[in-house]
Structure formats: structure tokens, C-alpha cells
Amino acid sequence: MNEKFFDLKKEKQDRIISAAMKHFALNGFLHASTDDIVKDAGISKGLLFHYFGSKVGLYGFLYDYSMRFMTIELSSYTNKEETDYFEIIKQILTSRVDAMRQFPYVQLFLERAEEEEVPEAIAAVHEKRMSLEEQVGTILEQADITRFKAGADYVITGHILDYSLRGLMLEHIKTGAFSPERYGAEAVRYIDMLKRLSYN
Amino acid sequence: MNEKFFDLKKEKQDRIISAAMKHFALNGFLHASTDDIVKDAGISKGLLFHYFGSKVGLYGFLYDYSMRFMTIELSSYTNKEETDYFEIIKQILTSRVDAMRQFPYVQLFLERAEEEEVPEAIAAVHEKRMSLEEQVGTILEQADITRFKAGADYVITGHILDYSLRGLMLEHIKTGAFSPERYGAEAVRYIDMLKRLSYN
DNA sequence: TCCCCCTTTGACCGATTCGGTCATTTTCTT
DNA sequence: AAGAAAATGACCGAATCGGTCAAAGGGGGA
């Protein structure tokens, strides 16, 4: 890529990054069209290719950028001393909500990238694939599982939380004018209820 | 459409329906390609258009067919006397699992159809849109909500169930060789756990 | 004011893919 | 054997794709 991209006004950089994330997240590498991306970003097609060389180049840059971004967000909102499973989940959620305030589609983009099947897209990424999920996993190891009551399987509970928070996010995104804060607030209510039910 | 479609061997009908459902469910109306559908169904392109006239025609037929199919499945597995919320959820699940044994992508296809934004696709469907969700809603009204303990919000619980069962289904589908039965069995474990936690 | 250079544009390219057609072949029925 | 129905797949024009490039725009130094 062309490093001069970073000399652009921050606002323009973000517009381009956001638009690209959105289309890759929603349609996958293959069906995301560069025409749509530049239209959304409000720039010309030539400019996009001037800075990123190719569609694969753009995709690789985005993945790397998102990875670094989310890693920082995650480490700045999680507390290594917290041992309550649900409070850790809330910290992770908070870091994601904060990230989405700048790039609404980061989370979705990264999830989609992990399922990508197009060889070129995989190749553009495979070097930097030190998954965020590992990081999340490490944090969750700190959790004190013994607080779960008998009859509350913490593995199932974890899956339910994953699916529910993801489904809720998609629902909020689908209903135009996505507000990360509103999503976060509702998500916390879900987490708190499950916490209440899972402990003695 | 051409009514002679129903004179085809049942197995061929199902192959065509399944393939079409799959691609519409996975890619939406616009990005589902008739070339891919006929390749999957193992028929020629001419035949598809011979029976359904156009892509929209095929889509409309599929929606109507799926709607009728699921309506029957639903009414044959739900018991009007059941008042336990979670048991009703299990009956609905059972009807869906049974449906997926014949058409693995019915459920996904119908969900996707409700979110469709392409005008032609909406038009091909809008007459028959007496949503299944209403039917499900009616059945759930029978549920005895008072059994939920304080602190267990039955509305949130309903959403959590929706998101979790859907997420679990997608997970099973993504992991090739989808088995409706295995999905159903795991889903029941989720439901049972939430039932245990939600009642006194 | 003029010039230079970097940014930015969008018309354009060849390739591919799309929904849909139709002359032709294969299969079935009698 | 013959006629009808089922089935094929090469083909069509249109649209869309990723990517190029000559030219326009614009800001700053002399």
C-alpha cells in the first residue's frame, strides 16, 4: 500500500476505512464491489487504487488495521484482576462497543474475515492471523467458574452469550441508524440477567 | 409457473427446490445465481426456466411452497394444550428440525426472505405474506408466564432463545455435513438449561 | 502571475457473469 | 416407428467486475 494514505485528513481516512469495512463485512471479499465502496466513501475509484493498489491490497490493509485496533481496544478495557465471568464478558463488550463508535463494522468485518474462503483473501491475511479469539480466550481463563450453580453449564452459557450478543448486534445494525451505545446498554441487560440466573 | 413441475419425480423436485433454497438463503435474491442453482440441482438451465419462467417466478414459488410447508409442519408438532413456555419452544424447534430433514435451508430461506430488499422479490411475495411469526406468536400466547421466577425476564429470555437457536443452527450449517438431528439435540440442551434457570 | 507537483477524477477497458432464449437432442409413450 | 414431451447447453445482449490512465484541480513557492 501507499503510506501517504496516512497523510490524508483523519476524517477522510476513516470514511474510506469505514466504507470498505462495511461492504466486506456485509458481502464478503468476493461480492464486495469497489464501485460501491468508493461511492460510500465519497471518493473516486482512481484514488482507492492509488493508495491500496488492488482490492486484495485494500483487504489485507483493513484486516491488519482492524486487528491492531481491536487488540488495543481489548487490552485497554479489560482488567486482569477481574475474576467474575460475566463482568469479564461486559468488559469485552465495552471494548467492542467503543471500537464500533469509530468503525461500526469492525467487529462484523473481523468475524467475516475468519470465515473467508476466497484463496486470495486468505493469502492476504494469513501472516497476521494471530487470532483475537485467543486473546479473548486467555482473558476468560481468569474467570472463576466455581460460582456457577449446579445446573448452569458455563460452556453452554458462553455459547448462549456469544450467539445472543451477536444476534442483538445484527438486529441493531439492521434497524438503520445503528447506535453502539444503545446496543451496549441492551446487551448489558442480557448479560446481567444471565448472571443473576447462573449464580447461587 | 408450469404445473407440470409436480409431475417430475419427487426426488428431482426436491433436488431443485433444495438447491434454489440454499442459494437464495445464503446469498439473497440478487446475488443468488441461476447458474449455481442448476449446477447444484444437476439439471440444465433451460429446464429451470421451462418450469418457472424467470428467476422471480422461481423465488415466488419457493416462498409460497416454503410457507405452506412450514405451516403444516408447525401445526403438526405443536400441541394447543401445552402451557409450558419452554416445552412450546421445543415443539416449534422439533417442527423446524423435521422440516430441515427434507429441506435443510427452509428455515434460513424464509428468514432471509423476510429481510429481502429487492423490489421485484418483495413484489413476488407480498400477497402471501401472512407471516409465520404471527402463527408462532399465537402459539406462544398459550404459555404460562407466571412460572418465570423474579429476575427472569421472559421477553429477554425469548430473544436469547431466538438468537441462540439461530446462531447454533448457522454454526451447524457452516460446519459441512449438516445434520438436523444433531442440531436439534444440542438445541434441546440449551432450552432445558434455560428452563431450569428460569423457573423457581 | 506562472509553474511545478501532487492529489484526485471518472471515462474507459477487457473479462466475466448475469438472466433468459431456443434450436436441437434425448427420452417416453403408444 | 413416430410423434410428443422433457431436457440440454451453446449462445445472446446487458450489466458489472477490478483495474488503468490521461487529464483536471489545486496549493504553495518564486
Q: Structural class of the helix and strand makeup of chain A? A: mainly alpha
Percent of residues in helices of chain A = over 70%
Q: What is the 3D shape of chain A? A: elongated
Output the radius of gyration of chain A: 18 Å
How many β-strand stretches of chain A? Answer: 0
Tell me the strand percentage band of chain A: under 5%
Query: What is the element string of chain A, with H for helices and E for strands?
Result: HHHHHHHHHH
Instruction: Summarize the main sheet of chain A.
Output: none
The overall pLDDT average of chain A reads: 95
Low-confidence stretches of chain A: none
Q: How many helices of chain A?
A: 10
How widely separated are the two ends of chain A? 54 Å
Largest interface, Cβ cutoff 8 Å: A-B, 24 and 24 residues
* Quaternary structure type: homodimer
Notes on the structure:
Two copies of one chain form a homodimer. Chain A is mostly helical and 200 residues long. Chain A is built from ten helices and no strands. The longest helix of chain A has 23 residues. The radius of gyration of chain A is 18 Å and the shape is elongated. Chain A starts with 9 loop residues before the first helix and ends with a helix. The interface between A and B is medium-sized, with 24 and 24 residues. The structure holds a DNA duplex (30 and 30 nucleotides).
